[in-house]
Specification:
Number of strands: 26
Structural class: alpha+beta
Radius of gyration: 29 Å
Number of domains: 3
Shape: globular
Largest sheet: 7 strands, antiparallel
């Protein structure tokens, strides 16, 4: 059995002028790992055809004409699938064995307009269930559409009957849907969630952000985005968000990661609760795997939103919630149980394939009858790729053949290690990488105090050495090897892939008198208070249990800190297995703000100075983002030109920074 996955998505071929479009149809199979399917270079998804794109002005109802044309073309393209699904077809598998394969349509990836096109319904109706368009904002169950019943209604309407279900379900007069006759498939259960268009662009950007902007004001929202500290891997909206003209899915993700702390204090508690519920739902939808517990939390987040959504009506922002993309969230849990996590069916993959299989092909044409030229160009490139793969395979099979690609990889890896240093195993659950040779080999304590802000460096280092039984006392005349940054490699977890965190400790600098000064970067991290209490890994079979124990342990035994200096001790102090970091502590993670569901902390002080300590960097688990507690007051102008970590008094620990931290937080608080 091979589960066939079809994706269709119309795309524009021109950027600045013209209306040239293409309508590719992609095919892959569910037997291939989703991590492979998402890689365009793996060629796990193939282009099987272009659908015609025409205005159909000769039709009295062009909309109906487009529906019929689409289904007619898809019937022609998928005709071989019907016979193969019924009787099977012999195929050579990856292990060189010939097996009889039954390809069955399992999933159909499309955005909302194309989902309605496939389902033969109007765009203001749900393509999955029979809910009335006036009740799409209700969190209630509606009977699902079924392929047999819908096909019967369309047939009766084509025969001249007037079945009441035709109008009630908002159907279009399509006489021969392409999915009629597909064996062992129900098209309405094949329609998949669309995180990109339904959640990121639809529910979040087009609705939630606009609603909250009207409540708090565009100027207030912009200033809060501008005041967030720069963080590696997170877009810093230096000019706010209202001036951005063209958005991408990645920018929607970046904005979502900091949106809840932005709202805190500027909107009412019910608006904040509604926004928090929607973003929690989006985070759960992004999980790579689910359990009954995560699905329960996902459904609870949706129920929480519906319980407080009327606050937008009270503010005069909305008068109804009959929104198709908002209603689509109702079907996510059932779809995940049936088809798996939505990240394997996201429309981001077809969007990326447009570059290789549509846009580049169009650029190779003379813009006249371009579809024919595109198919010829793609056939030639595919033939060249197959020939190249065959030659490489033959060369590698010859006796004594040398794999040039492997030797190149090894040499590039060696060069990389010369620059970045070896990969040092810090713990049994993570790794970190740091430069083999520090860029600043001789830095004085005076420089560390004045430039790096390490005001109590000498005393903190003395305490660190005394605790380890060293009798050597550092003095103000000592010099240290100082690094700019290091990276932490967090391992993959059941719900999310591994993440690389970059931790910087670098003062501001200028490349020349005429160039602007680069800002300083002293990042915040989570540090284990007691390294000895870390759960121990007893064996490979216990890895899953170990990771789950880490989820609970990381918040119970960790503390936020700001890294000021990353350094190594001179040889006279003896050898230490890991580099060291001088940090300024924040208070322990003990208080959760009930409105945002996040920890809020303040800087820890000792004798009216920052509470500082020298720690080994293997105690640093990950980077974290601290967002100022803006409150209900206006954002000071200085916060948008300087580092807010130096100016604000209270911070939120942003749990939406990534899925790892989100799951850690949810495991701990529950």
């Amino acid at each position: 059995m091979a589960g066939v996955i079809i994706a269709t998505d119309k795309t524009s071929l021109t950027q600045f002028s013209g209306d040239k479009t293409a309508y590719p149809v992609y095919l892959t199979i569910g037997n291939i790992s989703k991590s492979v399917r998402r890689q365009p270079s793996s060629s796990a998804t193939m282009l099987i055809g272009y659908l015609p794109v025409t205005k159909l002005t000769c039709f009295s109802d062009a909309k109906v004409g487009n529906y019929r044309l689409f289904h007619s073309c898809m019937s022609t393209i998928l005709m071989p699938l019907m016979k193969a699904g019924k009787f099977g077809v012999d195929m050579t598998c990856a292990d060189a064995l010939i097996r009889r394969i039954f390809p069955i349509l399992a999933a159909y990836i499309a955005d909302h307009p194309e989902q309605c096109l496939v389902a033969c319904c109007q765009e203001n109706y749900c393509p999955i269930c029979t809910v009335h368009w006036k009740h799409r904002g209700d969190n209630v169950f509606s009977p699902p559409r079924t392929q047999a019943a819908t096909a019967d209604i369309l047939r009766r309407h084509a025969d001249g009957e007037d079945p009441p279900e035709f109008a009630q379900q908002g159907l279009r007069p399509v006489f021969s849907p392409f999915w009629v006759g597909l064996p062992h498939a129900d098209i309405f259960t094949c329609i998949t969630p669309d995180i990109l268009h339904q959640l990121y662009k639809g529910v979040f950007k087009d609705h939630l952000v606009e609603w909250c902007e009207k409540i708090m004001g565009a100027d207030v929202m912009d200033k809060r985005f501008m005041a967030i500290v720069d963080f590696p891997g997170l877009r810093h909206f230096r000019k706010g968000i209202t001036g951005v003209k063209q958005w991408t899915g990645n920018e929607h993700k970046q904005m979502q990661r900091v949106f809840i702390p932005i709202l805190a204090g500027a909107v009412g508690p019910e608006v904040l609760a509604a926004a928090r519920a929607l973003i929690d739902f989006i985070c759960y939808a992004r999980y790579q795997s689910h359990t009954s517990e995560t699905l329960h939390r996902m459904q609870q987040a949706l129920d929480d939103f519906h319980s407080v959504k009327d606050t937008f009506i009270e503010h005069g922002i909305r008068d109804h919630f009959n929104i198709p993309k908002l209603h689509s969230m109702f079907h996510y849990v059932a779809s995940i149980k049936r088809l798996g996590s939505p990240d394997g069916y996201n429309t981001e993959s077809p969007e990326r394939l447009h570059i290789d299989l549509a846009k580049q092909a169009y650029r190779a044409t003379n813009r006249r009858d371009y579809t024919i030229q595109m198919t010829v160009w793609l056939r030639r490139h595919e033939a060249m790729a197959l020939k190249r793969a065959y030659i490489n395979w033959q060369d590698n099979c010859l006796p004594g053949a040398i794999d040039d690609s492997q030797s190149d990889d090894s040499s590039s890896k060696a060069d990389s290690d010369d620059i970045h240093g070896p990969l040092i195993i810090a713990t049994q659950s993570q790794q970190y990488r740091i430069a083999r040779r520090p860029p600043f080999p001789s830095v004085s304590i005076q420089t560390l105090k004045q430039v790096y802000g390490a005001v109590d460096f000498l005393q903190a280092l003395r305490t660190f050495l005394q605790q380890r039984g060293s009798k050597i006392v550092p003095t103000a005349d000592d010099f240290f090897e100082v690094y700019k940054s290091f990276t932490i490699h967090t391992p993959s977890q059941p719900h999310a892939t591994g993440i690389i965190h970059r931790v910087r400790a670098r003062p501001g600098y200028s490349d020349g008198p005429r160039k602007p000064r680069s800002p300083s970067h002293f990042d915040t991290v989570l540090v284990a208070d007691d390294n000895q209490s870390r759960p121990k890994l007893k064996g490979v079979s216990h890895y899953t249990v170990y990771v789950q124990s880490i989820l609970i342990w990381v918040f119970e035994e960790s503390r936020a800190a700001r890294v000021r200096v990353i350094f190594r001790l001179p040889s006279r102090f003896g050898s230490f297995p890991h580099p060291l970091a001088y940090v300024h502590w924040y208070r322990p993670l003990s208080t959760i703000d009930q409105a945002t569901g996040m920890y809020y902390i303040t800087q820890s002080t000792r004798r009216q100075a920052p509470h500082s300590e020298v720690v080994s960097i293997d105690r640093i688990w990950r980077a974290c983002l601290l967002i100022p507690h803006f409150g209900s007051t206006a954002v000071p102008a200085s916060w948008m030109s300087e580092n807010t970590l130096d100016l604000a008094a209270k911070f939120y620990l942003d749990k939406y920074l990534d899925l790892h931290l989100f799951e850690h937080h949810e495991q701990h608080v529950r």
